Amino acid sequence: MRRFYPAVLEGTPQVRLRHATPVAHATFDDPNLVSCAGLEPVMRLAQACDLHGIVGQKVRMPGDKGSNPAGKVATIVAGMVAGADSIDDLNITRHGGMGSLFAGVYAPSTLGCFLREFTHGHVRQLQAAGRELLVALAAGTPLLDGVDALCFVDVDSMLRRVYGKKKQGAAFGHAKVGGYNVWLRGYNPLIATLSTPISAPVIAATRLRAGNAGSARGAAWQVAEAIGTARACGADGLIVVRMDSAFYAKAVIWACRRNKARFSVTARMDAKIRAACEAIPEHAWIDIKYPKAIWDEDEQRWISDAQIAETSYTAFEGTQQAITARLIARRVKRLDPTQHAGQGELFDQYRYHAVFTDCPFILEQAEAQHRGHAVIEQVNADLIDGPLAHLPSGRFAANGAWLACAAIAHNLTRAAGHLAAPRYATARAATIRTQIINVAARLAHRARTIHLHLPEHWPWQQAWNNLFTAVHAPPA
Questions:
Q1: Weakest-pLDDT range from 37-41, 346-350, 407-411
Q2: Strand, coil or helix: what is 50?
Q3: Which residues pair with 286 in a beta bridge?
Q4: Who has greater pLDDT, 164 or 378?
Q5: Tens of pLDDT, residues 250-282
Q6: R_g of the chain computed on alpha carbons
Q7: Which is nearest to 250 in space by CA: 189, 326, 317, 192?
């Protein structure tokens, strides 16, 4: 057997093995160790918000494979919180002393059979359970601080590539990879999130679609569903639905109006929109803080190549769904790459970006808040870096249920971050997993209680203790 002896540079500080006490043996034989002790307070938080009761009430599945959906969904969610991104990875909930911490943990084979029993109706039931759990989390934790004053609903889609040609619903869809337009085989999940100016987004609604589905397909009812969830979470004030140009459609915008919410959607740059932007008088354009902008102390204004202005615009004119609202235009100078240094331009050319909105904010606020729609990309990144790294089943409804469980796990992780420390309120899900969830512990059984012994000098022990204390009632 070949042995590797790494080279050591003398005098260079580095992490290396100690020669005085080398590791000679490794055995997997300790029944009182767990590798993800942070699951205990997180799942206690889920239990305090009645995850089992909500799923048991909402999800009704026939047969022995669909029995006890509450316990099986809880096992899937716990595995996802710990970092599982496939059905086999859910086995992480069954190692070492996990049997002492949790009861009713199911094997991955059982969970796979359970997911394959889902139909579209059962997926809708699970999605309803996820929305009700979000309402409970928002009531019990500072998950959506400030939602009573202003709430943003962001809607976006993403293409998740799959490689199995026999997966139900997998089809070729358009995506951009490295700036190039490509066609990839996959699924097209639709995500709706809730956020406030002082809180990170949580997932309010999900829908799994075939890979060749248009971005706006099903978006109207998902917007209505997300607005209803926002109101259930305490959004009694202003609700603004933010979307990109893929959702610039009559049905989607009217869904906002019917549900008494404001909309802010990127307008497609067609000839009519461009003409409206170019018709704005020159004195109406104002400079804004943009990348590489400079603040002029004398004139007390930003000097930037980006300017914004607004005008009134009627979308879908000539139809029964015509809407008149504000058109906020942003223009950026289009630089000529062939221009020689020091040579002036004969006239300025601009690239225009337009936002169609009926929000009541002043121009600068409305434009900046619409750019804040990009926050949903962080949710997509968290899902892709976690449970949505794979859509593991060959059955479409099973993958829809997997997506719904991923939303529940994301919201639980976000709520746990809020309870741990302020900096975790907006941290990436992977950061919370690394520092709070996936920390090893040894179980000690004392007087019908369990004592967790965690690593000494754990850098984030105060945050872990904050979460643990927040979800545990003081001893009697």
A1: 346-350
A2: coil
A3: 308
A4: 378
A5: 999 999 999 999 999 999 999 999 999 999 999
A6: 26
A7: 317
Alpha helices in 98-188 (DSSP H): 98-101, 108-116, 120-140
Confidence tier at 300 by pLDDT (50, 70, 90): low
Instruction: Report whether 264 contacts 366 (CB < 8 A).
Output: yes
Closest CA to 45 of 92, 84, 77, 67: 77
279 vs 285: CA distance, rounded Å: 11
Between 69-81 and 39-48, two packed helices, what is the crossing angle to 10 degrees?
140
- Percent of the chain exceeding pLDDT 70 equals 90
| pTM value > 0.85 | yes
Q: What is the pLDDT of residues 205-249, one digit of tens each?
A: 999 999 999 889 999 999 999 999 999 999 999 999 999 999 999
User: What type of residue is 164?
Assistant: G
Q: Which residues contact 135 (CB under 8 A, 6 or more apart)?
A: 229, 232, 233
Would you give the end-to-end CA distance of the chain in angstroms? 59
229 and 135 Cβ atoms separated by less than 8 Å: yes
Q: What residues contact residue 14 under an 8 Å CB cut-off, 6+ apart?
A: 8
Strands 238-243 and 150-157: parallel
Task: Please report the sign of the dihedral spanned by the C-alpha atoms of residue 223, residue 227, residue 230, residue 235.
Answer: positive
**CA–CA dist 259, 254 (Å, integer):** 8
The one-letter amino acid at 336: D
Rounded to whole angstroms, how far apart are CA atoms 30 and 400?
37
CB 414, CB 202: distance < 8 Å: yes
- 252 φ, ψ (degrees, to nearest 5): -70, -45
